[in-house]
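Teaching assistant here, posting this on the class forum so everyone can see the example we discussed in section. The complex has two components, and the goal was to see what a joint structure prediction looks like when all of them are supplied at once.
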Amino acid sequence: MTDEREVMEFDVVIVGAGPAGLACAIRLKQLNDELNVCVLEKGAIVGAHSLAGAVIEPQALDQLLPNWRDNPPEMCVPVTRDEVHMMSATGSFKFPITPPQMNNHGNFIVSLGALTAKMAEAAEELGVEVYPGFPAREALFNDAGAVIGVRTGDMGVDRDGKPKDSYTQGMDLHAKLTVFSEGCRGSCTKQLIKKFELDKDADPQTYGIGIKELWQVPEGRSEAGLVMHTMGWPLDSSTYGGSFVYHMDENRIAVGFVIGLDYSDPDLEPFEKFQDFKNHPKIKALLEGGEIISYGARAISDGGWQSLPKTEMPGALLIGDTAGLLNLPKIKGVHQALKSGMLAAEHIHETACSSAGYDAKLRESAVGKELKKVRNFRPAFHWGLWLGVLISALETVTLGLLPWTLKNHADHAQLKKRDPAKPRPTKAERSLAPRDRLAAVYFAATEHDEDQPVHLQVADTDICVSQCAEEYGNPCTRFCPAGVYEIVEEEAGKRLQINAANCVHCKTCDIKDPYQIINWVTPEGGSGPNYQLM
Amino acid sequence: MKILVPIKRVVDYNVRIRVKSDGSGVDLNGVKMSVNPFDEIAMEEALRLREAGVASEVVPLTIGTAKAEDQLRTCLAMGGDRALHVVTDAEIQPLQAARILAELAKREEAGLVLMGKQAIDDDNGQTPQMLAALLGWPQATFASEVKIADGKARVHREVDSGIESLEISLPAVISADLRLNEPRFIKLPDIMKAKRKPLDKLELSEFDIAVPTVEIVKTSPPPTRAAGRMVKEVSELVAVLKDKGLI
């Protein structure tokens, strides 16, 4: 293995074929057909790693691809009705009015995977080079410290890091400007934020974990276009989160649960909460007798305005959710991703591939204004559900004009130490599939060659069996929605086992691990989930 | 020598397939499609033969929808020289495929047809044998090793009792088994180059495929297993088994 690598030169390299990256690529080629634009994607195909609710506001898409409605992505349903419910263990209470930011009139329910696949086709027609199966492993810098591109991951490396017969060295892609659109907690972005101290004037980023399933339900259960959200049970009032139930066409229902990763109870299992929710009489009545089609999970950024890092650095930009542009009260980030990608493209075009000035433009744009207006919504829930609802209602009626800005706190620091006297929560009886996380991962169709280096790098596994076991009772074994982390007992004692092949690339472990010793890096290209219509 | 490598666009082996609710087939909407893995192995072997100086040209070809061009481009990115695409939306069955391939093998004056032993979608495993019969060429199926010298191919095939070693004269049809090789990873610049390699499109009407075909009556998923029941002790187990008339 030498360090002399093949190099390819581009005007713009974009990391991640999600809505932000593809919008940026499409807009760039619309503005200047001569530009040489390349999009790298770690999934085996575009859309394989895309997961969202997703209800989208179509305005940005209308602007980017005016004819998209003539040839819509598969499973694209106009919203007909909104409902918001407060849940209790056995019943539910429907809010008489829908909070304005949750009114979805004119919006569409889509599969983000189907949408990004369509966008990739549009990008390729414009001459963008889209390369699925090629993850950007790390950013590259010149002597002055500016970003000059990225290096793709090596292929054909065994578990111990030695080259196999099939070894194929990664390449260096050089660009005048590199755009990172890796989605929430991007692995390159994480390095860049640290290196350039992009977050030094921002609050810590905060996150949520979203777990989703797509179901085929018996005839007559789904009402295409109905959008339902819930708060409350099965979460206690100190844990932020809620569900979504989106009714699609052809008897399909997307059901999911989002939990704020600032939760404090180390015994909490997001997967179990989601399954409990599905088995609530109201939800079970929709799904029972149906069939699960797809399962997946993904972290989302919810820190908003206060946590927004600087989005430019010499040679590179951050767009979409890797910058943390999701609008939490709306529970939507796709339109923000699209708009930020387009804005970045316009900036790149105007400045002939310079990063300087993009951050200011982003903050002053509709994208930034939208975040600023709702900045106090999420931190208000730090004081629990009821005060959170009250304050966010106040923020809503005053349009975010009140003079204060509440603080965000790092999620991993919110976990409380486990009270050893407290019994572990028991699991409720439930009948809907999947029965556990391993059964669920099957529906994510996730695949990693077992003979490759573990892509979840744990700096010190001794902490796991000593300090962490005592202090927190190994929360990694519970917050991971794919059962990657396991503490196994052997004659020699306990040890951490990392089932990396199960990983669905949600990044929750990298975020929530209380000691911050888990580092998520990209596995061999094309590995990971193969989501269908997520 | 020219090697033809017939390939098929199939649902990716990682995808969890679902049968359509009306039983008319498998739901392929939004599903990842790939080169049939056995065909990919055949492609790799053909490239290795070219790299070893045995073959001069490797030509992947497919019979399928316009989208199957993606899979041909994958083969070109692996190293294929040029490609042939018989474009059709029709469901092509093994004998029809074999007739088209036989015609193309003659037209191209191929010295060897190397193909997967079966496609992982319908698992027929018939086309290579039918093709050899139609051409009147020798065949070696389920190859796990291929060596070519002096106009002959020595082929190892895995059989229940061990390894069977065959020698056949060329031109011939060889079908690839799983352990023949491990296909290479594709490099980025090769994907770009593949976009510019020649790819000839042919009409299905050029070929005579008027043969009796098999009608698929119904596709249904395997029956689901009934839920198990935990028993507390052996006596209870015995009672349950007796009750069911199993012992």
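For the discussion questions: The two ends of chain B are 65 Å apart (CA to CA). The longest strand of chain B covers residues 139-149. Think about how each of these relates to the inputs above.
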